[in-house]
Amino acid sequence: MIQITLPDGSLREYDQPLSVHEVAASIGPGLANAAVAGRVNGVLVDCEFMITSNARVSIVTSQEPDGLEILRHSCSLMLSIAVRQLHAHAQWRTGSALGDGFYCEFAVERPLTATDLPRIEARMRSLAVTNHSIRRHSNPSPSAPFDHRSLYRLGDTEHLTTGPHVPTTRVLQAFALDHISGTQQQRIYGTCWSTHQELEQWRLPPHVVVVSMDDRQTTFAHAVTERLRRSGVRARADLRNEKVGHKIRQHSQTVPYVVVIGEKEKVGGFVSVRGRSGEDFGRMEVEAVCEWLGQPGV
């Protein structure tokens, strides 16, 4: 007999090993359809993960931050496969969730351009609506987190990547590709949300863009962006691995305020604020920026 303890403290008993998805289905069909992953004894695992002994289990959906990040991580996997299907010369290097979306980096013989993005996105949509399964080759121990790459199969294609991933591509619907950079080493960036309504909300012109200096500030810059949103400011983060001067000049043409985060800002827990007309408002604490930008007329 296997005893499963749910987040509300309730106990369920099963007479044989079962997957995370089967636990969700035993609770209700709605939860089973919404499940993108699970937590077994606090560790994130795929929906197909088999539970063979007593455990604490929770079902992860796209409505929580971990679930949304898994959606974005799986979109990165789908992007890598779409690019390789369309451009056999492209060699995948790395990819992951990133802020509001995801990215993939490729080594290419001939550079792709922004005009290639609609076709790549269309191929991703084809993969999504075909509802391919995404399955890991082996079932790890619940004491071994998904912190290393494993072989995952999407349709008839195998990919070495970290997990967990969504169980099927049908949940990957609200996404878009929005940028490509580099020449021989190229990165394609996209955004992904749990619903089309959230995607359309993200597409609205922001009042503030949070710009990171390099990859070291990614986590802090995304956290600042989320804090600004909670305060009522329409904010977006630009976490692309490009020169910060280029990003500032680009956004200063259209966005009222640019919040710049470098290594000093990250370590000190503050940000630097600039205006559209070149004003330098100096360094501010994050809470002070939220309060200031939330004032009428700012």
- Provide the gyration radius in Å: 21 Å
CATH class of the largest domain: Alpha Beta
Outline type: globular
Give the CATH architecture of the largest domain.
2-Layer Sandwich
What's the number of domains?
A: 3
Helix percentage range: 25-40%
- Structural class of the secondary elements? alpha+beta
Look at the structure and name the CATH superfamily of the largest domain.
Threonyl-trna Synthetase, Chain A, domain 2
The quaternary organization reads as single chain
Widest beta sheet: strand line-up: 2-1-7-4-5
The CATH topology of the largest domain comes to Threonyl-tRNA Synthetase, Chain A, domain 2
SS strand fraction: 25-35%
Order of helices and strands: EEEHHEEEEHEEHEEEEEHEHEHEHEEH
Task: State mean pLDDT (0 to 100 scale).
Answer: 91
Written account of the structure:
It is a single chain. The chain has three domains: 2-61, Beta-grasp domain (Ubiquitin-like (UB roll), Roll), CATH 3.10.20; 66-193, Threonyl-trna Synthetase, Chain A, domain 2 (Threonyl-tRNA Synthetase, Chain A, domain 2), CATH 3.30.980; 205-294, Anticodon-binding domain (Rossmann fold), CATH 3.40.50.800. The chain is globular, with a radius of gyration of 21 Å. The protein has 298 residues and is an alpha+beta fold. Strand 8 and strand 9 (101-107) form a beta hairpin. The chain has helices spanning 20-27, 29-34, 65-86, 117-129, 196-203, 218-230, 244-252, 263-268, 286-293; strands at residues 2-5, 11-14, 18-19, 35-40, 43-45, 50-51, 55-61, 91-98, 101-107, 134-136, 150-154, 157-161, 174-182, 185-193, 208-212, 235-238, 257-261, 270-275, 280-285. The strands form five sheets. Strands 2-1-7-4-5 form a five-stranded mixed β-sheet. Strands 16-15-17-18-19 form a five-stranded mixed β-sheet, with helices on both faces. Strands 8-9-14-13 form a four-stranded antiparallel β-sheet. GO terms for molecular function: ATP binding; metal ion binding; threonine-tRNA ligase activity; tRNA binding. Residues 1-61 form the TGS domain.
